[in-house]
What does this fold into?
Amino acid sequence: MYRYPRSAYIHIPFCHRRCFYCDFAVVPIGDNIDSLNGNKSDTVKDYLTYLKKEILSIKHKSPLSTIYIGGGTPSILDPTQIEDLINIFRKYYGIDRGAEITMEVDPASFDEYSLNGFINAGINRFSLGAQSFNDEILKKSGRRHTKDDVFNSCSWLSKAKNENFIRSWSLDLIQNLPESGTNIWTIDLKEAIKFLPPHISIYDLIIEDGTVFKKLYDLGKLSLPNNDESYENSALTSLFLKQSGYVRYEISNYSISGHQSRHNRVYWKGLGWWSFGQGSTSSPWGRRLTRPKTTELYKEWVTNQCSLALDESLLKSSFKEIDLDEKIMLNLRTSEGVNVRNLMKEYGWSDEKIEGNYLKLIKTWDKYLDGGLLKNEGDRFFLSDPKGMELSNQILIDMFNWWEKIN
Ligand code: SF4
It folds into this structure.
């Protein structure tokens, strides 16, 4: 058993421009990647220097079994820059044979040529941020790509998978975008499975503060599906993808057999992971640590952490396990659900403490068990699909209230 995390997330913050719903830690660098604003710019090169510094600053490195390069838009980088990052991990941490190495790609920022470059650099799984197949909706969401770009990207990825150059790929869509009623969403789903992606992620639109969508929403200018339509879209997604051979293994994730994301399971199971890059969150020993969200502050942080010997500050002794309520939430999101009693034992609770508090939690969940949102087999509780998965918020809120009361 390794004492240290076996997974690493790397954040590449650059995007051509900010999409209308996005509040991530991104740095918009303009539309032309070949210009001085692109991947050869000093801004990008400078960031990569600090990123590498941070990666190397961990003293006790262990071989990695999953690496995830996310953003932002990592496909803005040149394949040689991606290769450089992977080689640093290979040289200083080690990468397991058969490790899953994922990279997010945006349909507007790569072509078949650069895809081959990324594959040669060592990427064996791609996550394609398609979001929608509808040109009008893509435009109104501030995306740079078109439906044709998505089709091209899907066909290149599908070909790479069929020819065994990659192990898997995922198609990512956003559900309940403005004006995406059930008819448009049904077409999106049908388009999505045409290229047989082995994995599909479906994220629900969230209106975040500080975004263009929030402004439009406050002005009453955003035409969002109403609650009934949203639920209908979600239920349709679950049914359609199940009938098409996909298994919903987490609230937002579907896959065919053998293609679940191994990296994401590390997050959901509350296992340890490193993360590198501005705004990213690591959790080497449970408790989370988030880096500054702006480039300037991140660079300052890296410089300070390096001179303080970063890995000392990340020693297990200085970190607390995540609280039990968070662990219950993460487990409950997956189709396996959560064995609350076992979890309480893992957290070192006495039999007496378990008995009283376990019963109190189950009592707050009784109405969801009766209403069919929550199911149980012995001590294992899991969300029903689609009802429980779509309406999980209230179940989680009641669980957090229980947690507050007993602490
Ligand atoms: S491409 Fe992704 S990360 Fe970049 S602004 Fe759009 S949604 Fe945000």
In short: The chain has a mean pLDDT of 92. The first strand starts at residue 7 and ends at 12. Residues 15, 18-19, 22, 24, 26, 71-73, 106, 129 surround iron/sulfur cluster (CB under 6 Å).
